[in-house]
Amino acid sequence: MKKFYVTTPIYYVNDVPHIGHAYTTVAADVMARYKRLCGFRTFFLTGTDEHGQKVEKAARSQGMGPGELADRVVVRFQGLWKSLNISNDHFVRTTDVYHQKAVQELFKIIKEKGDIYLGEYEGWYCTPCETFWSEGQQLEGNLCPDCGRPTERLKEPSYFFRLSKYQDALLRFYEEHPHFVMPEVRMNEIVSFVKMGLKDISISRTTFKWGIPVPEDPEHVIYVWFDALFNYVSAAGYGWDRDRFGTFWPADLHIIGKDILRFHAIYWPAFLMSAGLPLPKRVFAHGWWTIEGQKMSKSLRNVVDPHRLIEEYGADALRYFLMREVPFGQDGDFSHKAMAHRVNSDLANDLGNLLYRSLTMTLKYFKGEVPSPGGDMRELQGLASSVVRDMEALMDQQAFSRALERLWDLVKGVNRYIDTKAPWALAKEKRHEELATVIYSILEGCRIIALLVSPFMPSKAQEMWDQLGVGKDVAMASINDATWGGLKPGTKVRKGRPLFPRLDEKAIVAKIQRELSEQVEEEITLQEFSKVRLVVAQILHAERVPGSKRLVRLMLDTGEEKRQVVAGIGEHYDPDVLIGKKVLLVANLKPARLMGMESKGMILAAVWEKGMALPLFVEDVPPGAVVK
Ligand code: MSP
């Protein structure tokens, strides 16, 4: 049996899943589903990249261990994949024991081969952040890009991989496998880069602990990419499932974003050559999404949070949009306008309406039973079979949007066929035999369309088959089912609700615009900021406001006077523990009345989760000190 092994990158757990992650994963899922349809024994892998300093630091700042943070974020990825109907066969975590063992084993093999040596890593080190930065990563003047403080030139012992040794072997490999990297422009970039010369790369660190220990030298942990890339072999069974590994390795397709191409197209094959393992067949680097014309930022992410998009448009429509809107390999822009437009034109008008009108006519002219065709069906039959063929070639090049475009030739073709054959006129003229042939052809066209669209929109494809009365699971179907004539005459159709209700494009765009304008961070001048008078104040007295869970009445000493402030911190603080503490007060805020009580000013609190407002306490400074 033919096999197909497809992967996504493994995602870092210091961030929560966003549309960029969803994009890569949906593409891999579409590929996996398509290959299953074509009868391949398929292994589809995704997972999480959990080690490294960033995760260690992110966890510390949230007051937990790195393992705990990883556990929390992993379920967010897994949850999203479920909502997006992702059919991965395995989920790898780099903290899984089998993975750690495999990485250590491979480290040993590569070291014994003479390709790993102990040297010194030299870089710019930020002591407060405990991070090394390269020349390029730093801010001008040797400043840390994270905290802005000066860095210093430091050395640490580190294991290196002899990447330089593989320069010629890599160039030879690219020449023999010109489609190893796709799209072609990216292959050219890689070849030029390697031709410029390769330096050995540092693959261990001693400045943090959260990683896989180097065998026999546990002062070092294995640096992220050596650890991460080997997930593709460890999860395929390397060292623990000989059968699976034998069946599936080498991978047929690594789908990644263009930002991580060098790791996959240069380091990865070199590691494998050194380890004596076969090389993957293809690395496809897709482009990046901007959001409503802008680079993705934390605030913009709200409007394209994958969960929210699923709620607004449905998982299948989102999957369709991502695959259809932008040629795979190019950059694209996500906008709600474009999304709503695609749903309305391609999905509601072309596809949904096709099924709806086909079933309506079947009910009207044949009491809801698929008629038996008697005449010539070559027109649609010919179109369908050429679409099946063309799609196969396009899918094999990961040309997802062109594959869908070609499929829509069939969708539009069947719609046009209805218009030109005008079944209503045939019915009127009582040309029953012709009518039966026309309706059969239309329904059969719909059945084949559903099959071909199933890798992209698995749920809607199933709904289509259910409404057509096919009575089979489309996920278990084979591409051979795309052969004309599969729909049995006499089958009862079951017309349901429209597949894709039309969206109010204008209302959606207006809603998003409103949200975006609320999110724009306005810049202020120093002069404007200096209007705010911030002072340190000590809490002399605190008590709950009767009848409120949230409000606490505070009596503050501002150094100059005593004044009353009502603060919404009662949910998290017992008033008694507040007494004696020093807080930051906005002293010149207009007084307000809260539950009948006057509040003169506002105390500052930190908010990092909805509803969690914790006051900022100050030490070592007397009341009345001014904060600037
Ligand atoms: N952990 C590494 C990968 C190791 S693979 C052995 C990593 N993780 S990541 O979480 O930062 O990124 C994963 C993927 O998300 C990358 O393929 C990246 O290109 C993709 N995207 C992140 N933001 C994106 C967009 N704005 N648009 C499209 N894809 C983007 O890198």
Walkthrough of the structure:
Helix content is 43%, strand content 20%. It is an alpha+beta fold and 628 residues long. The chain folds into three domains: 3-286, Rossmann fold (3-Layer(aba) Sandwich), CATH 3.40.50.620; 333-482, Isoleucyl-tRNA Synthetase, Domain 1, CATH 1.10.730; 529-627, Nucleic acid-binding proteins (OB fold (Dihydrolipoamide Acetyltransferase, E2P)), CATH 2.40.50. β20 (592-594) and β21 form a beta hairpin. It is flat. The structure holds 5'-O-[(L-methionyl)-sulphamoyl]adenosine (MSP). The site of 5'-O-[(L-methionyl)-sulphamoyl]adenosine has 19 residues, from β1, α1, α7 and β12.
Notable traits:
single chain, 628 residues, alpha+beta, Rossmann fold, Isoleucyl-tRNA Synthetase, Domain 1, OB fold (Dihydrolipoamide Acetyltransferase, E2P), seven-stranded antiparallel beta sheet, six-stranded parallel beta sheet, 22 helices, 26 strands, flat, binds 5'-O-[(L-methionyl)-sulphamoyl]adenosine
Describe, in short, the structure shown.
With 628 residues, the protein is α+β, with helices and mostly antiparallel strands. The chain has 22 helices and 26 strands.
CATH topology title of the largest domain? Rossmann fold
Poorly predicted regions are: none
Please give the CATH architecture of the largest domain. Answer: 3-Layer(aba) Sandwich
Radius of gyration in whole Å, from Cα? 31 Å
Give the distance, in angstroms, between the N- and C-terminal Cα atoms. Answer: 71 Å
- State the total count of DSSP E strands: 26
Shape: flat
**Hetero compounds:** 5'-O-[(L-methionyl)-sulphamoyl]adenosine
Overall domain count: 3
CATH class descriptor of the largest domain? Alpha Beta
Please tell me the overall pLDDT. 93
- What's the helical proportion of residues? 40-55%
CATH H-level homologous superfamily name of the largest domain: HUPs
Count of helix runs:
22
